[in-house]
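User: Show me sequence and structure for the first protein, then do the same for the second.

Assistant: Starting with the first protein.
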Amino acid sequence: MSSSVAEKLAKKSPKKPSTKQVRLKLVYIDFWSALKMSFLAAVALAVVTVVFFFLVYTVLQQTGVFDQVNALYVSVAGGDGQDGGKATNDLTAIFDLGRVMGFGVVIAILNLVVVTAIGAITAALYNLAVKITGGVLVGFTNN
């Protein structure tokens, strides 16, 4: 008796699982959600920008690139950089850590504003375009 059950189970082919597919249309992007997400992405980009400026400045300072560029500038501009206590030909006085980081923060803040505005404008333009095109068709499956 058990052999007949085993034979029946062996004869049965395994069922293939049915996959369900769902097709949805993206017809609206919430403006405030897009604004918040683009702001968070812009904050992350701002942090990366400030850290990038610090790391590049540190690497260039430690490898002596600033000193070499300053020596080249002094030789091209003429003068020895010692004109009565004035450092008019000294680039290292211009490119100190404070100024470089200040410039990096200004760039980060500008990027913050621009990326947030672009995210909001993109959501608004998409919502306007959906009225003409009907939206983007997106397919999903359970696999």
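Switching to the second protein now.
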Amino acid sequence: MKEFMLIFRHEDGSKIASPEQMQIWMQQTMDWIGGIAAQNKFVLGNGLPFDNAKVVGHKGVVTNGPFGQVKETIGGYIIVKADSVEEAVEFAKGCPVLQGDGNTVEVRTIAKGDGVH
């Protein structure tokens, strides 16, 4: 069984949901993760808030950010165990982040020194 990272991409980070909508989405996300965990296939996951975020660029240039007004932001990720990328994609299809217009979930295999790149 391999591990896959499901990366939550938000098309427009400037759209801020109401606290009530955020609470609903958080509950939906916890339920979704709970369903994966019930299959013993959830490894870990975290949100990626903008607070104190920095971007380090070429020649060590450091800027504040990323910021919500950029075209696309990464809101978080989870790592799951799956027998195939197709199974990981099926998990991704249930992600509540996909309720947002233009949002996506990127599915990537985690390389563990086995030559997978």
